[in-house]
Amino acid sequence: MKKILFLTGDFAEDYETMVPFQMLLMLGYEVLAVCPGKNKGDTVKTAIHDFEGDQTYTEKPGHNFTLNYSFEAVDPTAYSGLVIAGGRAPEYLRLNDKVLDVVRHFFDADKPVAAICHGIQLLTAAGVVQGRQLTAYPAVGPEVILAGGRYQEVPVDGVVVDGNLVTSPAWPAHPGFIRAFVELLGAQINI
């Protein structure tokens, strides 16, 4: 069984935490959800971001999400892939040097990485997007460009794949986002 490391944190986007986590479990992967400074059994508070015609998303309280592993116990060499949730958590998770080292490991080892929405902020802070094509929530686009990435503007349900990297702008992309990620992990989906 392939093990997936799932990075999330307080006020990560609810759907971008709950849905990929559950989809990957449903497919039979062992998914270990972690947050720096928290342990197995602790919870993170999530936020629901919705698109209601305003200039940006609206934010509402989400669910509490229970972590099933402790961040301090993470050995990135033990995982086949990495998923990074979006929302507000990445803006402070990127300040944690161990988080950035974990992200770099997956790129150095050319393992599949899936990042959505603001999760791309961990990639830009880790310095792994130079020369890569990727997307993000549009407000993160300038960070991608400043970090040397080639920002791709796609519909909110779009997906960009560049080598081992899968990115999407927001949760409406989950079907294609998770499909592309598991295909990089070696799954064959015949539909």
Structural summary, described in words:
Helix 3 packs across helix 4 (120-126). The protein contains six helices and eleven strands. The chain has a single domain (3-184), classed as Rossmann fold, CATH 3.40.50. The two termini are 23 Å apart. Helices cover 28% and strands 25% of the residues. The strands form three sheets. The chain has a six-stranded mixed β-sheet, sandwiched between helices. Strands 2-4-5 form a three-stranded mixed β-sheet, covered by helices on one side. A two-stranded parallel ribbon has the order 8-9. Strand 10 and strand 11 (165-168) form a beta hairpin. By secondary structure, it is an alpha/beta fold. The model has no long low-confidence stretch (mean pLDDT 96).
Describe the oligomeric state of these chains in a short phrase: single chain
Order of helices and strands: EEHEEEEHHEHEHEEEH
What order do the strands of the largest sheet run in, or round the barrel if closed? Answer: 3-1-6-7-11-10
- Mean pLDDT across the residues is 96
Q: State the share of residues found in helices, binned by percent.
A: 25-40%
The percentage of residues in β strands lies in 25-35%
CATH topology: Rossmann fold
| Rg, Å, rounded | 15 Å
Total number of helices: 6
Large-scale geometry: globular
Poorly predicted runs are none
Under the CATH scheme, the architecture is 3-Layer(aba) Sandwich
Quote the distance from N terminus to C terminus. 23 Å
State the name of the first-level CATH class: Alpha Beta
> Structural class, from helix and strand content?
alpha/beta
Topology, number of strands: 11
- What count of structural domains? 1
